[in-house]
């Protein structure tokens, strides 16, 4: 039965597309990776301020720093609000934690980069 | 405060037992709201992520079917099966299967011809991927792979089992047979749709800190997108800066491997090329009242796409003063 390709996954052509219009809500959390010198990288998490207040962000970064064994800061940007910066590539781990702890709904987390 | 932090750790999965209770205490903000929103969230993303494998599996299956026709061994078996089913002339069927193989090979050759690169180094865009539409770049099987499949599957003609004995036909086998016959009779109805091929990006290093993306223009032409749009997307996704040089090559600051560039391109195709309705890549991007729209040439649907935003970029390197 499972050989039949049409039955493998239910695909609803009339369903709303989730990506695209979620941007209209304006509160996507972007997780990006930037290259530094050599093989070093920097992970930035932008857009958390619509989910967490300042104190919680600073508490969250403490947890990130300890769990990922890296350093990091919170930077306040004029346009993007509070942005978390962490040393190293922690994009998947961050998105996992954010969605697992129900801090941010999963389809509003956008992981950028390769 | 100290106590709270500890609770907080617990809430983020350090201490599993306290998780539930402490979460309520600490992240008291909009708990209901979050929980309402999240359960349906994972489904789409997970599906999208799993899709590449799905696509691969499917592909191999498609190959299998062709492999059947390849060998003549199942011919007797199908003969018996045909008599049994009281349907089709064996001769005609055999010939058509031969022909289909020929056409398949011809198609392969044709698709290979324009680019002299070997088949293994090319990507195939599969038209019939589902929901996520992820498996566009799936690697075309190289020749040994193909061979292997043929070896494995010649023995397993589904109808061979029914030859001679009175076991009732299983639905799956019958369906498989039906699909095979359809595919042989008229290939365009059998789900054997043409592939959208994309050439792999040529990426090489320029010194230690720069990456050259040589065939940007060629790729853009294939996707029917402007240079600038693709460049903007690449640079925004990779979080770097770059420029297009005189020869039309994109020079990106930072080290990137071809694989990384390819995955970003794949994202681009998913977001800005693929039609969300019919999964066709035969689309056009147009700008209208500051909004960008994708118009599908296959199904004529039209949808808006988000503009490319660079977002926050951290200060890297020496600070200017």
TrEMBL record, chain A:
Keyword Protein biosynthesis: yes
One Pfam family, short name: SUI1
Gene Ontology terms for molecular function: translation initiation factor activity
Domain SUI1: 29-102
Protein keywords: Protein biosynthesis
Source organism, top-level taxon: Eukaryota
The keyword Protein biosynthesis is annotated on this UniProt entry: yes
Family: Belongs to the SUI1 family.
Designated name of the protein: SUI1 domain-containing protein
Organism: Fonticula alba
From TrEMBL, chain B:
Stretch list, region Disordered: 17-92
GO biological-process terms attached to the record: formation of translation preinitiation complex
Keyword Protein biosynthesis among UniProt keywords: yes
SUPFAM superfamilies given in the database record: Translation initiation factor 2 beta, aIF2beta, N-terminal domain (SSF100966), Zinc-binding domain of translation initiation factor 2 beta (SSF75689)
Segment forming the signal sequence: none
Domain Translation initiation factor IF2/IF5: 193-302
Record has Protein biosynthesis as a keyword: yes
Single GO molecular function: mRNA binding
Annotated Acidic residues bias: 28-37, 68-86
Top-level taxon of origin: Eukaryota
Entry GO terms, CC: eukaryotic translation initiation factor 2 complex
Alphabetic keyword roster: Initiation factor, Protein biosynthesis
Family named by the database record: Belongs to the eIF-2-beta/eIF-5 family.
Protein name: Translation initiation factor IF2/IF5 domain-containing protein
Organism: Fonticula alba
């Amino acid at each position: 039965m499972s050989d039949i390709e049409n039955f493998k996954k239910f695909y609803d052509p009339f369903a709303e597309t989730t990506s695209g219009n979620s941007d209209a809500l304006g509160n996507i959390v972007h997780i990006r990776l930037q290259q530094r010198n050599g093989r070093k990288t920097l992970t930035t998490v932008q857009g958390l301020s619509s989910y967490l207040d300042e104190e919680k962000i600073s508490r969250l970064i403490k947890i990130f720093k300890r769990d990922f064994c890296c350093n990091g800061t919170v930077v306040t940007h004029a346009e993007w609000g509070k942005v978390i910066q962490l040393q190293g590539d922690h994009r998947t781990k961050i998105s996992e934690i954010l969605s697992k702890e129900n801090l941010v709904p999963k389809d509003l987390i956008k992981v950028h980069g390769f | 405060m100290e106590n709270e932090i500890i609770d907080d750790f617990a809430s983020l999965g350090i201490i599993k037992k306290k998780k539930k209770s402490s979460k309520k205490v600490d992240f008291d903000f909009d708990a209901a709201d979050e929980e309402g929103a999240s359960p349906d969230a994972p489904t789409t993303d997970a599906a999208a992520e799993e899709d590449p494998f799905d696509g691969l599996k499917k592909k191999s299956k498609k190959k299998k079917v062709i492999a059947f026709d390849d060998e003549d061994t199942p011919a007797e078996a199908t003969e018996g099966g045909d008599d049994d089913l009281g349907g089709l002339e064996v001769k005609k069927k055999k010939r058509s299967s031969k022909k289909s193989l020929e056409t398949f090979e011809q198609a392969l050759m044709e698709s290979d011809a324009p680019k002299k690169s070997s088949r293994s180094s090319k990507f195939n865009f599969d038209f019939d991927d589902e929901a996520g539409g992820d498996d566009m770049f799936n690697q075309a099987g190289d020749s040994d792979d193909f061979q292997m499949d043929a070896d494995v599957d010649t023995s397993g003609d589904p109808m061979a089992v029914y030859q001679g004995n009175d076991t009732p036909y299983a639905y799956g086998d019958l369906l498989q047979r039906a699909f095979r016959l359809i595919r042989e009779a008229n290939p365009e109805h059998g789900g054997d749709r043409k592939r959208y091929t994309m050439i792999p990006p040529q990426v090489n290093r320029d010194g230690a800190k720069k990456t050259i993306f040589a065939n940007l223009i060629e790729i853009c032409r294939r996707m029917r997108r402007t240079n600038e749009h693709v460049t903007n997307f690449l640079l925004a996704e990779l979080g770097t800066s770059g420029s297009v040089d005189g020869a039309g090559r994109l020079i990106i600051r930072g080290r990137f491997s071809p694989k990384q560039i390819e995955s970003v391109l794949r994202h681009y195709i998913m977001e800005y090329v693929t039609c969300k309705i019919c999964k066709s890549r035969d689309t056009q991007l147009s700008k209208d009242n500051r909004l960008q729209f994708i118009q599908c040439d296959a199904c004529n649907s039209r949808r808006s796409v988000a503009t490319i935003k660079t977002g926050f970029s951290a200060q890297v390197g020496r600070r200017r003063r």
